[in-house]
Write a structure and sequence with these properties.
alpha+beta, 5-stranded mixed beta sheet, 3-stranded mixed beta sheet, about 15% strand, globular
Length: about 375
């Protein structure tokens, strides 16, 4: 996404503030996610955060429903408005017609914005970081394993950052936090110093890309916690008991003991710890079958890297058809805008769905006939 694309979005921010100011006085909008970190692709959704005044303290799902109702009343500006209230973070999905941009609006705490600022720092620390992260993100899109109900893009980016920490290209997050610099947000210290990067490694982007796949192909995900805070792998067993947690995690231990947060989840195929929110496992959505498929994709990439020349590796990595594609592919309208919740099914699935609808129709007809007969008898 170009700088011009990002600047064009300012119209969207101003329009949303004008609309919602009438209902929630003093609200402010902030962008986070891939647009901030520089990882936004041309078709990336825009992640927005609405900050409300402290006296608006109802459950977030309430504001999501209200926002959907408001946006639907501006049908010439917004369409495909959908409220998702059951998710861990309730959001409103919509399409902004003037900017032709799909958006996700949430009313959660500001931690997401601080995470984006940290990733932005890492992406700008070395020109190879952003380039590597973009290639890996595009590779994940080609093979359909990141996104909604899959591995989060944020989690995949953390894997890239952690790998570069092992190469001494990026520093651990703990080294960016000074003891006298504290900014607590939702019980976590979000403050960090943007230390100028002093990396002496001259390894090429091509070599780093191949090394990324090899590192995670050989990693035993089920035995370790990937800690960007310390910049090293930590045995899962150490987090199973608060007494054995590494000493760097003083705030985590204090928050768990005070019941200000739950212990980090360890019963997952992968455990990628958020560098700021230490109780958050960013890979909880990666179920066993998805984890197995991702590891297979790492293996396929390593095989390509070992046997192909540098000219053919990237081409075959991004355009290969050998990886399985999902049964349901996203359906796009002719104008290129994704229709939320609509999928294009295979003919076999279409027949199956039609049979299910026919059975349901027959069931409802029989139910109505029995009800009418009972009314007549009475």
């Amino acid at each position: 996404m170009s700088k011009e694309d990002v600047q064009h979005m300012q119209n969207l921010f101003e329009e949303l503030e004008d609309i919602f100011e009438k209902i929630w006085h003093g609200c402010q909008f902030e962008v986070f996610g891939s647009v901030v970190t520089g990882l936004a692709l041309k078709n990336s959704d825009l992640d927005l955060l609405c900050h409300l005044r402290p006296w608006f303290n109802q459950p977030r799902a309430v504001y999501v429903i209200q926002a959907r109702k408001i946006l639907k009343s501006y049908s010439t500006r917004f369409r495909n408005v959908l409220a998702i209230t059951k998710a861990k973070v309730p959001i409103v999905k919509f399409y902004h017609i003037p900017t032709q941009r799909r958006c996700d609006l949430s009313f959660s705490g500001p931690l997401a914005a601080h995470n984006s600022q940290l990733l932005e720092y890492y992406m700008l620390s070395d020109e190879r970081v952003l380039q590597l992260a973009l290639i890996v993100k595009y590779w994940s899109k080609i093979h359909h394993f990141t996104g909604e109900n899959l591995m989060p893009n944020y989690c995949l980016t953390l894997l890239v950052v952690f790998y570069l920490q092992q190469k001494n290209i990026l520093c651990p997050f703990i080294s960016l936090q000074q003891k006298d610099d504290v900014r607590i947000v939702d019980v976590w210290n979000t403050a960090f110093t943007r230390i100028p990067n002093k990396c002496d490694t001259t390894e090429s982007l091509y070599s780093l890309l191949g090394g990324f796949f090899k590192y995670y192909h050989n990693l035993k995900f089920d035995q370790c916690v990937i800690s960007l805070y310390t910049g090293r792998l930590i045995e899962r067993e150490k987090f199973s008991d608060i007494q054995s947690v590494p000493q760097e995690y003083e705030s985590y231990c204090a928050n768990v003991r005070s019941e200000l947060c739950q212990p980090i989840r360890l019963d997952t195929c992968m455990c990628v710890q958020d560098p700021i929110t230490h109780s958050r496992n960013c890979a909880v959505a990666v179920h066993p079958k998805l984890a197995e498929r991702i590891i297979d994709l790492f293996k396929n990439a390593v095989d390509l890297y070992d046997k192909e020349s540098s000219n053919n590796f990237l081409r075959n990595l991004l355009y290969t058809e050998e990886s399985p594609t999902p049964t349901h592919k996203p359906f796009f309208r002719k104008d290129g805008n994704k229709s939320f919740g609509i999928t294009k099914l295979s003919k076999r699935n279409q027949r199956s769905n039609q049979r299910a609808r026919n059975c349901k129709r027959k069931f409802n007809n029989n139910k109505n006939r029995l009800n009418n007969q009972q009314i007549t008898n009475n």
